[in-house]
């Protein structure tokens, strides 16, 4: 029996192996997907198969996305709610050989289809040639769109292994569709299997559809992948591949050694290597091997480019959030913008393909579109009236540029190290070029008219203080934002809401987060969102409470470390998609894990576990939410644990020995830091404007990022939370401690911080006293003397804490500021007769960092 494994590109970790039997599992899944779709019209007339085929393609894409969700959920929660053998698309490598095994078959299917359908629709719109193949007339756009999508998605369904997969693909695809429409089945089986055009292949593409899929397959290039900018990382990856060859056939030892010699000794590249000429001393080798791909546009459409990247966003999102002095406006604008981006995404998905969307989280849309794509219809379908402007960008590119990067980067590298050269000749560089271009700004018509009028003071919106308000109270934009927020709150409380807005909100991850918390815990957790921040001054029945029972709002802003850099190193769209998805799910599931565990394992001051929060933004690179300060310590601890579960964390400068290859595969081996820098600002005055609290939190997040680069990234590879926390009192001390490890800590340190607070509380040391110690500027002798004079019973506790602080390399003053900040919002809190600091951790283990 043959075994195959997909290695995660960021952690070099193999979660689950597959065998040849995975093909049968995938086939059964496809039979189920196809069987659930109405094929009546398609059975009667092949010209009416367009709707059916597009629904089949949508079903395959949906299944792949469901498998990815299960994969990342299992990784973060360390469980198997869906068995690994049921994740056939995701766990199967796109190429069983090195280095293509870092890509999943799932993403190679998606990206090949994304390129193919965009090119096919451009071919159609440009009237590039005859729209006939397999004796089928493809003059119906939907038929062509659906046919190309299904054929491209299934083009490698005969894998694993690579050898003989084209014939197996042909047989599988025919069997899937023969009972629906035999002519369609025959055509799809040819289109999906005839996608290789190298000189060794006899069954080469015969028509425009097959050539488009072939070029799309080469542009997606499952074997041409994983060239991290750091050459030493690739050399370590080669060592890993040598050991992996002991258990899995990834090309053979001689094949691995040829690549290793090329990287280490710069020998001539072998044409037998599955790297398409990359790493050769001859900078033109990869170009000459891609000659057919370079001429794809000439062959298909007289030289016209058929592919394009498209980007859409609302610029200056922060300027809209800054209108939010109140929670309903602040969160409402964020929800409204997120919903708008998903409206744009849905347009692309329904008119081009679901797989064409690369990303639609974080306030912007990125997609592969036909070069003929005209966004006017998309813009017409969007409600842009609440916004001052929108920004869009489109850039056409060649098939070969998806494979080799921008054309202007192909030549004139001279004596540059081949590894550096080829790590920069890839899709990541192409997308960097695109995203760094200026784009165009559009102004909605209603806004143009409003900008021309002078607004009287009595007609200025009282919410945002910017727009015209007809009633002198609230502008239309703020009304819409507030309606989005009210609907969201009503949905969370189980009361429904505006039907149209409810459907829009259900698509968003901020709502899915709540939905998944409820679904997983079946009512065991009480999820509370607020009508206003003032709700924190009340108990859960709505009655005002005394100070001891009040919870304090904490706004948290987080941003990924090195996310952009890692995405820019992707050599193919397939790898870009995998890395981008890794970070998107890393943020989402780590927050879900943290919220759930905070409620279940820690925050037990009420009759049922409670979590109070308001998600603001859950992007692909960043997030923002509001918690209570009483939840902050466990939340950061558990979020850090979730990130380590997914991405690992290893000491940078040490070596971990493995007893065998199997153990090596089962351990995460991150080679760069990709954690999250967090700023958290606690404010006790609930009337304080939320947008100002966010600005402070952003400043603290920048502190975390600076310390991350200067300190933590020199210590660790992998993931985790690095946080800086302050409140309205301690913020005045920021300049003293902002560059130090101490005010800025790993999430794993939060348990020890909590336990230190417990010891200080029990020793009678208050937050006020902590701030007195801070005035002694980190001089431990003066601190010990002060304690001995004024509170001798606590001397041992203080000495132990200060000495431990020094041992861990923390700045004393910064650490005391952090302790004082957290204690001031926690001490003497009393809920249902149980003091906060006496709540147990229920045996939760401290996260350990492994050595590498």
UniProtKB/TrEMBL annotation:
SMART domains: HDc
CDD domains: HDc
Domain of life the protein comes from: Archaea
Keywords linked to the UniProt accession: Coiled coil
Listed SUPFAM superfamilies: HD-domain/PDEase-like
InterPro entries tied to this protein: HD/PDEase_dom, HD_domain, Rev_trsase/Diguanyl_cyclase
Residue ranges occupied by any HD/PDEase domain in the UniProt entry: 101-231
The protein's name: CRISPR-associated protein, Csm1
């Amino acid at each position: 029996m043959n075994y195959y494994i997909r290695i995660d590109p960021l952690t070099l970790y193999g979660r689950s192996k597959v065998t040849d039997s995975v093909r049968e599992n995938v086939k059964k899944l496809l039979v189920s997907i196809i069987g659930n779709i109405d094929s009546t019209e398609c059975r009667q007339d092949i010209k009416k198969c367009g709707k059916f085929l597009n629904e089949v393609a949508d079903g395959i894409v949906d299944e792949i996305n469901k498998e990815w969700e299960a994969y990342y959920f299992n990784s973060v929660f360390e469980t198997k709610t869906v068995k690994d053998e049921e994740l056939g698309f995701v766990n199967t490598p796109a190429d069983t050989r090195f280095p293509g095994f870092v890509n999943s078959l799932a993403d190679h299917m998606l990206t090949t289809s994304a390129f193919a359908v965009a090119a096919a629709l451009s071919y159609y719109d440009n009237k590039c040639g005859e729209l006939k193949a397999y004796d089928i007339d493809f003059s119906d756009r939907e038929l062509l769109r659906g046919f190309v999508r299904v054929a491209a998605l299934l083009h490698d369904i005969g894998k694993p292994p690579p050898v003989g997969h084209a014939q197996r693909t042909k047989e599988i695809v025919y069997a899937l569709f023969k009972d629906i429409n035999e002519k369609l089945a025959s055509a799809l089986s040819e289109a999906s299997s005839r996608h290789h055009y190298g000189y060794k292949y006899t069954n080469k593409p015969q028509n425009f559809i097959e050539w488009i899929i072939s070029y799309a397959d080469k542009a997606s290039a499952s074997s041409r992948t994983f060239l991290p900018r750091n050459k030493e990382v690739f050399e370590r990856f080669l060592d890993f591949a040598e050991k992996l060859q002991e258990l899995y056939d990834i090309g053979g030892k001689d094949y691995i050694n040829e690549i290793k010699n090329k990287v280490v000794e710069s020998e001539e590249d072998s044409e037998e290597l599955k790297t398409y000429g990359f790493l050769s001393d001859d900078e033109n080798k990869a170009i000459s091997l891609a000659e057919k791909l370079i001429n794809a546009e000439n062959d298909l459409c007289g030289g016209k480019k058929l592919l394009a990247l498209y980007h859409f966003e609302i610029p200056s999102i922060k300027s809209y959030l800054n209108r939010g002095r109140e929670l309903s406006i602040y969160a409402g604008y964020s929800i409204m913008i997120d919903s708008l981006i998903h409206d744009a995404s849905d347009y692309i998905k329904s008119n081009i393909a679901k797989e064409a969307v690369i990303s639609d989280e974080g306030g912007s849309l990125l997609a592969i579109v036909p070069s003929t794509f005209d966004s006017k219809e998309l813009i017409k379908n969007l409600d842009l009236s609440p916004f001052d402007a929108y920004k869009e960008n489109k850039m056409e590119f060649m098939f070969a540029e998806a494979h080799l990067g921008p054309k202007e980067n192909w030549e004139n590298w001279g004596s540059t190290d081949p590894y550096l050269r080829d790590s920069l000749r890839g899709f990541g560089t192409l997308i960097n070029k695109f995203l760094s271009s200026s784009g165009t700004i559009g102004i909605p018509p209603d806004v143009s008219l409003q900008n021309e009028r002078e607004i009287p003071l009595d007609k200025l919106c009282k919410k945002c203080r910017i727009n015209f308000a007809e009633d002198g109270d609230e502008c239309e934009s703020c009304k819409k934002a507030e309606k989005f927020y009210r609907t969201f709150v009503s949905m969370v409380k189980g009361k429904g809401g505006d039907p149209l807005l409810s459907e829009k909100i259900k698509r968003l991850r901020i709502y899915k987060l709540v939905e998944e918390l409820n679904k997983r815990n079946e009512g065991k957790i009480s999820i509370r969102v607020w009508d206003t921040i003032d709700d924190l001054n009340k108990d859960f029945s709505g009655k005002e409470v005394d100070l001891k029972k009040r919870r304090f709002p904490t706004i948290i802003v987080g941003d990924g470390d090195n996310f952009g850099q890692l995405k820019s190193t992707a050599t193919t769209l397939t790898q870009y998609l995998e890395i981008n998805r890794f970070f998107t799910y890393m943020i989402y599931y780590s927050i879900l894990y943290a919220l759930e565990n905070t409620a279940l394992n820690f925050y037990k001051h009420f009759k049922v576990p409670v979590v109070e929060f308001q998600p603001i933004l859950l992007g692909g690179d960043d997030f923002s939410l509001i918690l209570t300060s009483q939840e902050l310590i466990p939340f950061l601890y558990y979020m850090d644990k979730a990130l380590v579960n997914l991405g690992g964390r290893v000491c940078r400068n040490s070596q971990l020995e493995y007893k065998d290859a199997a153990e090596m595969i089962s351990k995460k081996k991150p080679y760069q830091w990709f954690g999250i820098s967090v700023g958290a600002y606690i404010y006790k005055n609930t009337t304080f404007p939320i947008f100002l609290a966010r600005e402070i939190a952003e400043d603290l997040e920048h502190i975390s990022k600076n310390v991350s680069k200067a300190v933590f990234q020199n210590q660790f590879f992998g993931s985790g939370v690095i946080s800086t926390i302050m409140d309205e009192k301690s913020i005045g001390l920021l300049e003293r401690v902002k560059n130090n490890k101490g005010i800025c800590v790993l999430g794993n340190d939060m348990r020890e911080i909590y336990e230190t607070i417990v010891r200080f509380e029990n020793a009678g040391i208050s937050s006020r006293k902590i701030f007195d110690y801070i005035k002694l500027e980190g001089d431990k002798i003066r601190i010990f003397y002060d304690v001995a004079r004024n509170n001798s019973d606590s001397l041992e506790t203080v000495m132990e804490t200060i000495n431990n602080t020094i041992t861990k390399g923390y700045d004393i003053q910064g650490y005391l500021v952090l302790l004082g900040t957290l204690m001031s919002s926690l001490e003497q809190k009393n809920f249902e007769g149980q003091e906060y600091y006496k709540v147990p951790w229920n045996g939760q283990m401290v996260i350990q960092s492994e050595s590498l």
